[in-house]
Amino acid sequence: MEDTLSLKDILGIYRRRSRIVVAVMLVCVVLAVLFGYVLLAPVYRSKTSLIVNQRQTTGQATGGIDYSQVQTNRTLAVTYAEIITSRVILQDTINRLKLDMTVDDLMKATTVQVQGQTEIIVISVTNTDAQRAALLANAVAASFMTQLPKLVNSVERVSVIDPAVVSAKQISPRPLLLIAVAFAAGLILGTLAAFLADYLDDTVRTQDDVKRLSGLRVLTVVPDTRAKGGCHERTG
Question: Are 140 and 124 in contact (CB under 8 A)?
Fold first, then answer.
């Protein structure tokens, strides 16, 4: 007796258990809609960018570029990025704005990155309030620029390139993506549930079921006279 399923068998399972597949998919999609639009609070991100300025040198005054100074500034940008997320800077930010949050909370919401091989530092802050996210990002930058001379003896100038602005676009949740993932997950789970239900169902309906389950050849078929028109058959 063959254990493998043919394409005809698979399609037959889908046809018989289509209600299970559709029901599971609907449940998954409804849950995704609830989480995406109702239960999960939207999260926004605001960014501000800083640049480590080059010192004015004799070479620069004559139109030349001091590549060693550029490399130094790039190295300092990496160091400054670490300083920005230090407790000293974040606590100063909290004190400036009189925030009702801890340093750890602000640290989790703040991300600092150096843009490639450049002297540009990007400070990103996430919050459920778009205006608050922009306020926090600008405050962190201001605290850093104020506290830096107190922390480092020799400091390169740091300037703001782009201050943080309020972003109307939420970064999470992403409802449409959630729904798409839920649809795919529902299809997979529904298919598994359909195959499991079909596997556990030992009802014999057709001659093919008799052959598949017993391996014996069907000799005769007795029509079910109770069915209208005598169309329903009992296998024997």
Answer: no
Q: Do residues 162 and 52 share a domain?
A: yes
Q: How confident is the model at residue 85 (pLDDT cuts 50, 70, 90)?
A: very high
CB 49 within 8 A of CB 162: yes
Measured torsion, CA atoms of residues 113, 115, 121, 125, in degrees rounded to the nearest 10: -40
**Helix axis angle, 18-34 relative to 175-200, nearest 10°?**
150
Q: Which residues contact 235 (CB under 8 A, 6 or more apart)?
A: 204, 206, 207, 209, 210, 218, 221, 222
**Of the candidates 124, 154, 172, which is a domain's last residue?**
172
DSSP string covering 132-144? HHHHHHHHHHHHH
Between the CA of residue 208 and those of 8, 18, 212, 225, what are the distances in Å? 12, 20, 6, 21
State the total domains in the chain.
2
Rounded alpha-carbon distances, angstroms, from residue 71 to 53, 120, 125, 145, 149 = 12, 12, 28, 21, 21
Closest to 151 in 3D by CA, of 103, 71, 84: 84
CATH number at residue 143: 3.30.1890.10
pLDDT tens digits, residue range 8-58? Answer: 778 888 888 889 999 999 999 999 999 988 888 999 999 999 998 755 544
pTM beyond 0.90: the answer is: no
**Nearest alpha-carbon partner for 192 in 34, 14, 69:** 14
Tell me whether strands 221-223 and 233-235 are parallel, antiparallel or unpaired.
antiparallel
What are the backbone angles phi and psi of residue 43, rounded to the nearest 5°?
Answer: -120, 135
Domain-terminating residue out of 172, 193, 227: 172
